[in-house]
Recover the amino acids of this structure.
């Protein structure tokens, strides 16, 4: 049947073009393989292969002829179904397949579908299939008229169409390829075809049921019932076919205007600390802020992003900020109220700031910082740090060079003056004593008071800090001149002050209050004469009451007293200094004034006392009747006696008889005596770093003696300005600096240069010196 | 006879709070200003208005505004790293001067020093 217009082509190449007849045994095939893709709505993926005896033509295999196809069934009859409507001449017709010849009923129902489907599927079909050729296909579909169909079938048809159209496209694609290959028909080319997995793009369950399925009967019955129903209801008003049309009235333009929508730009910078603050402030939020936390967060950063401080109530400009915040939080309304009131009160604001404690602290800090800049090289020298030159300061460098050159040239020891502690408060006062704080080595307490009865004026205690050499940190005004000072070691803030009138007061240096913690004025046993020295001693007595530190004082009334203070001070006499020498016997009292004392560094029970008659007595605190030993060498009052920190047997004493004596506690006569000029020696001190070095201040000069170098002459003499007498000497325990207090109220800090500590054990060095001296004497 | 007890600190110490505090503050400000190389000191209140200054008004206002912003930024940086931390002091060393700022919530204490004089 070559003349049949069924030019279905098999997919396989072996099939000749002309001789192709579709093998349709039962008439089931795919007639619509035209490029314009006729939809066979009756075919769905499932139902296609369900016909039993029909030979199923593979969707893909059938080729679409360019011209209209004719369907011929097995009997050779032309059963080409007539199209329901004739499309435009320019558009190729699509055929409807008469698949189930036996199913007339179903066909009739079915045939109504496709047209609708054509119309409705255009949109949906163009969706997934964007190929251009298919676009033309959909156009043809649209042009077909639609009939009203029930909704449910419409949808199904849509999906059916999709599945059909897939095959259409595929077949169309195959066609050009096949035509090319026919030229090589003779050569056998092996073409391996494989089928991909079925891609279900759309799956609509079939509404058409195969005749041979089990449900066919039920479906048929339902269909029949429906048609019956339609027939019965012909005249029924409820079953009338109706169509509606909406009128589109003439359009009218109407204008509406609304208030301008104010657009506000809001920016919030979310920072870690901001979140932390808000989180912590939620608990602190008062009744004012009824707002949620988000709003609370919003108000705080926005005021800060405006560049103002967090206190918006003080800021006039922030008023505008608050007003534009449309989120009316409780806090913002509160702030608005506050802001209205405050601009009138500018003055108290100022006062508040100026009186705040924080400002004072900041001012103190600022002062120290400024001074640190000024004194930086000096402080660095003090602390034995390398002096860093400021790269921006050219002038200073030049000064430094000249300075250091001088020091480099000389190898002999000299005192390099660093700075001095002085201020207008202290000008003109005599420095009587200086003491370092036990806990903070930067804190220095200086007592100002006269040592003679000439000018009784009020005394002053200044606590200087190394960080501020221009103004003392604490100033305590005392009623009479200060003659003795000592810091407590256990309570580092307690400063004991001994005065010229015999009063002993204990101050707390933490505060700047002028009143002492306790005062000995109430005590019955108070000293009646100047207190020349005070020491805190760590008492290790067995009694619990005596444990801890006690204060011991020596005074010109001849008593060494131990002070205990609970609520008020009470004293117990440790020793009464009885006169030994008849020459000195006084008629007023039987006691000789004590000038100085020193407890043994290792044994806190043994102490030395220097008296006005020139004797030095060794006493024990547990034995207050008799001296243990007496050392007599000085002719005049002994101003200072001090144990050597390195050698426990050796002590040094100085007196107004122009001499300094070095003693060993087992020898009654001094081992060595030092004198340089006929000058009263006011103060001596062992160097805490070197056993053979000690310093002495006498009228007009400061001497540093080094026994290794010479015992006849001081190693270093530093003359003070004329008219000024150095009256106190203090070594710095941390560094190699010496502090000298003078009679004009200045405390000068010197750095000891070129005095080496020396190797070997310090004590041995000193003892060697002593031994050599002793041996040379005998 | 004077009666002293351990609790003397609570009374008698600050007899005239306002005046003595003010005097102390003024004294300290004067001392800072008198130090070697100090060009000026400014105390700025919370609004950015200088309340105590030794420089002329325009310079003071300029310093106050600029340093306030910088201090805010510095404080933000410090607290971002650790919210429990707080900025206590800020020093800016430039070729000619050193600017030192002690910030607080309510005020700003600024000192400008030329250390090389």
């Amino acid at each position: 049947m070559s003349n049949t217009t069924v030019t279905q082509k098999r997919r396989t190449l072996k099939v000749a073009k002309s001789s192709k007849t579709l093998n349709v045994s039962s008439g089931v095939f795919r007639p619509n393989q035209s490029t314009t893709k006729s939809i066979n709505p009756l075919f769905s993926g499932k139902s296609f292969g369900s016909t039993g005896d029909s030979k199923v033509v593979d969707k893909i295999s059938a080729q679409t002829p360019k011209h209209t196809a004719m369907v011929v069934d097995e009997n050779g009859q032309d059963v080409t179904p007539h199209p329901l409507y004739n499309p435009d001449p320019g558009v190729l017709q699509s055929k409807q397949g008469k698949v189930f010849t036996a199913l007339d009923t179903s066909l009739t129902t079915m045939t109504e579908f496709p047209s609708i489907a054509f119309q409705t599927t255009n949109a949906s079909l163009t969706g997934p299939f964007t190929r251009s050729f298919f676009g033309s296909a959909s156009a043809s579909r649209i042009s077909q008229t639609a009939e009203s169909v029930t909704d449910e079938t419409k949808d199904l048809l849509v999906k059916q169409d999709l599945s059909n159209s897939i095959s259409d496209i595929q077949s169309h694609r195959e066609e050009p390829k096949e035509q090319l290959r026919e030229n090589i028909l003779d050569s056998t080319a092996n073409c391996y075809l494989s089928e991909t997995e079925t891609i279900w793009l759309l799956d609509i369950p079939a509404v058409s049921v195969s005749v041979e399925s089990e449900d066919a009967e039920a479906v048929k019955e339902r269909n029949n019932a429906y048609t019956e129903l339609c027939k019965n209801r012909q005249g029924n008003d409820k079953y009338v076919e109706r169509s509606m049309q909406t009128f589109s009235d003439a359009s009218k333009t109407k204008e509406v205007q609304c208030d301008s929508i104010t657009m506000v730009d809001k920016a919030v910078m979310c920072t870690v600390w901001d979140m932390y603050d808000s989180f912590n402030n939620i608990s602190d939020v008062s009744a004012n802020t009824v707002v949620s936390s988000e709003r609370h967060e919003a108000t705080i950063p926005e005021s800060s992003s405006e560049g103002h401080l967090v206190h918006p109530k003080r800021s006039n400009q922030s008023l505008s900020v608050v007003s534009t915040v449309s989120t009316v939080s409780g806090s913002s309304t509160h702030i608005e109220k506050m802001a209205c009131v405050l601009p009138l009160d500018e003055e108290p604001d100022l006062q508040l700031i100026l009186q705040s404690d924080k400002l004072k602290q900041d001012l103190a800090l600022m002062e120290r910082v400024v001074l640190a800049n000024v004194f930086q090289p000096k402080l660095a020298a003090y602390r034995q740090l390398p002096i860093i030159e400021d790269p921006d300061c050219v002038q200073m460098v030049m000064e430094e060079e000249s300075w250091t050159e001088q020091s480099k040239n000389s190898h002999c020891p000299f005192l390099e003056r660093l700075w001095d502690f002085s201020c207008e408060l202290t000008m003109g006062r005599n420095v009587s004593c200086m003491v370092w704080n036990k806990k903070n080595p930067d804190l220095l307490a200086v007592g100002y008071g006269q040592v003679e009865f000439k000018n009784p004026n009020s005394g002053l205690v200044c606590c200087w800090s190394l960080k501020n050499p221009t103004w003392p940190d604490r100033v305590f005004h005392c009623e009479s001149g200060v003659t003795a000072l000592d810091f407590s070691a256990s309570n580092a803030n307690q400063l004991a002050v001994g005065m010229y009138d015999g009063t002993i007061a204990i101050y707390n240096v933490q505060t700047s209050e002028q009143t002492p913690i306790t005062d000995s004025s109430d005590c019955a046993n108070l000293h009646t004469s100047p207190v020349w020295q005070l020491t805190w001693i760590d008492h290790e007595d067995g009694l619990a009451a005596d444990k801890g530190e006690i204060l011991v004082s020596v005074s010109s009334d001849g008593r060494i007293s131990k002070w205990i203070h609970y609520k008020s001070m009470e004293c117990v006499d440790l020793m009464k200094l009885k006169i030994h020498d008849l020459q000195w016997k006084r008629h007023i009292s039987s006691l000789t004034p004590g000038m100085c004392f020193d407890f043994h560094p290792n044994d806190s029970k043994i102490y030395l006392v220097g008296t006005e008659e020139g004797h030095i007595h060794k006493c024990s605190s547990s034995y207050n009747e008799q001296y243990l030993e007496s050392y007599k060498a000085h002719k005049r009052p002994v101003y200072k006696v001090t144990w050597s920190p390195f050698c426990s047997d050796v002590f040094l004493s100085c007196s107004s008889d122009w001499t300094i004596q070095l003693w060993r506690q087992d020898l009654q006569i001094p081992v060595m005596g030092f004198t340089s000029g006929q000058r009263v020696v006011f103060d001596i001190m062992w160097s805490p770093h070197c056993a053979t070095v000690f310093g002495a201040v006498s009228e007009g000069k400061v001497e540093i003696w080094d026994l290794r170098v010479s015992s006849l002459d001081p190693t270093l003499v530093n003359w003070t300005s004329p008219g000024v007498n150095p009256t106190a000497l203090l070594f710095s325990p941390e560094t190699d600096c010496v502090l000298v207090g003078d009679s004009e109220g200045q405390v000068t800090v010197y750095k000891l240069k070129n005095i080496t500590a020396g190797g070997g054990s310090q004590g041995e060095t000193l003892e060697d010196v002593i031994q050599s001296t002793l041996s040379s004497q005998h | 006879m004077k009666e002293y007890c351990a609790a003397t600190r609570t009374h008698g110490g600050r007899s005239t709070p306002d005046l003595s505090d003010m005097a102390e503050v003024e004294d300290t400000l004067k001392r800072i200003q008198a130090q070697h190389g100090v060009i000026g000191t400014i105390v700025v209140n919370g609004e950015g208005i200088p309340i105590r200054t030794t420089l002329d008004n325009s310079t003071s206002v300029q310093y106050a505004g600029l340093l306030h912003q910088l201090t805010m930024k510095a404080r933000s940086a410090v607290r971002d790293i650790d919210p429990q931390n707080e900025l206590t002091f800020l020093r800016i060393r430039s070729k000619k001067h050193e600017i030192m700022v002690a910030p607080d919530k309510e005020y700003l204490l600024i000192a400008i020093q030329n250390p090389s004089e």
